Amino acid sequence: MNLLLIRHGQSYVNLPDWSGTNWDQPLTELGHRQAAALAAWLPQRLPQVGAIYASTMQRARQTAEPLVGVYGQPVSFDDRVREIGNNRYDHVPWSPEEHPGEFAGYWASERPFAPVMKEPRSESLMHFRARVGVFIEELVEKHRGQYVLVICHGGVIEFAFDHIFNIGPWRRCEVWTHNTGVTHFEYVEHPGREVWRLHSHDRIDHLTPELLS
């Protein structure tokens, strides 16, 4: 299986002066242009895909739309690839009415077993990592021999690295991805040796300077 993890386009929550409390914001105008550029570029290098998955959050849904159009492939939406802090500890997404709206007073990697939001029912960093890891392992079983696109979030891509590289709870390095950056992992059937291969991270060939964010 070849797994392509794609961060969503620029959303209002990515703007440096954003002060809103609704975490599930749509793409900005620039984000839509980034998504369109991605959809024009990727099929030239990857003509066919076996499956497309996306986070259920607006910014990922909207980034997926142009890709669904060019590939003519339905998208499977999955709550497990929502951004960190947007699910409860039981992995159920917060509703807009109950979302805590404010992170706890520490960085998640400093206290990986504590709630990341100011709400005791919030997921911890390790809850988040578990839902990302379970999702990836299910893809391996379901899509052997296929190329799979997953339109998700920067945090999901970071913790895919942690899962695949078997990093412990206390992280020492951020894995940064630009909006619509593409990361390519391959699962290889190699008994007795490494089964994952990293081909590339944060490819942004499709983004001209004016589309970078």
| Residue share in β-strands | 15-25%
User: How would you name the oligomeric state of the polypeptide chains in this document?
Assistant: single chain
Low-confidence stretches: none
Mean pLDDT across all amino acids: 95
Number of strands: 6
The major sheet is characterized as:
6 strands, mixed
User: What class, by secondary structure content?
Assistant: alpha/beta
- Report how far the terminal alpha carbons are from each other: 30 Å
Rough shape? globular
Q: What percent of the residues sit in helical stretches (DSSP H or I)? A: 25-40%
Strand order within the widest sheet?
3-2-4-1-5-6
Structural commentary:
Helix 3 (125-142) packs across helix 4 (154-165). The protein has a 6-stranded mixed β-sheet with strand order 3-2-4-1-5-6, sandwiched between helices. Strand 5 (182-187) and strand 6 form a beta hairpin. The protein has 213 residues and is of the alpha/beta class. It is globular. The protein contains 4 helices and 6 strands. The model has no long low-confidence stretch (mean pLDDT 95). 29% of the residues lie in helices and 16% in strands.
